[in-house]
Amino acid sequence: MTAAQAQSAEIARGRTFAQANCAVCHAIGRIGDSPLRAAPPFRALHLRYPVENLAEALAEGIVTAHPGMPQFRLEVGEIGDLIAYLKSLEG
């Protein structure tokens, strides 16, 4: 498998994770509004902070100020996949 194929596979797995776990509230694609108005679209996260900075929070369990967001604790591979997907939305 080439590096480009591996990156593409990471992005696809990250998108699958986001679709299964995040899309109920967040817009996870390049267009569209978030179903939950307060949930930022994934394509805009990099405007708030470098998405790489999410790795530690994803490993420890994301806890937010709003009670509706479930706490997620991802495995190392899942973190890499989700961050690869988020980075793919930056352009």
Protein traits:
91 residues, mainly alpha, Cytochrome Bc1 Complex, Chain D, domain 2, globular
Structure notes:
It is built from four helices and no strands. It is an all-alpha fold. Helix 1 packs across helix 4. The chain is globular.
Order of helices and strands: HHHH
Strand residue content: under 5%
What general form does the structure show? globular
Overall structural domain count? 1
User: Rounded to an integer, what's the Rg over CA atoms?
Assistant: 13 Å
What is the straight-line distance between the termini?
Answer: 25 Å
The CATH architecture is Orthogonal Bundle
Mean pLDDT across all residues, rounded? 87
Protein structure class: mainly alpha
Largest sheet: none
Helix content: 40-55%
Q: Unreliable stretches, pLDDT < 50, 5 or more residues?
A: none
Number of strands: 0
CATH class: Mainly Alpha
CATH T-level topology: Cytochrome Bc1 Complex, Chain D, domain 2
CATH superfamily: Cytochrome c-like domain
With helices defined by DSSP (H or I, 4 residues minimum), what is the helix count?
Answer: 4
Question: Helix and strand layout, with pairings?
Answer:
Blueprint: H1 3-21, H2 45-48, H3 54-60, H4 76-88
Helix pairs in contact: 1-4, 3-4
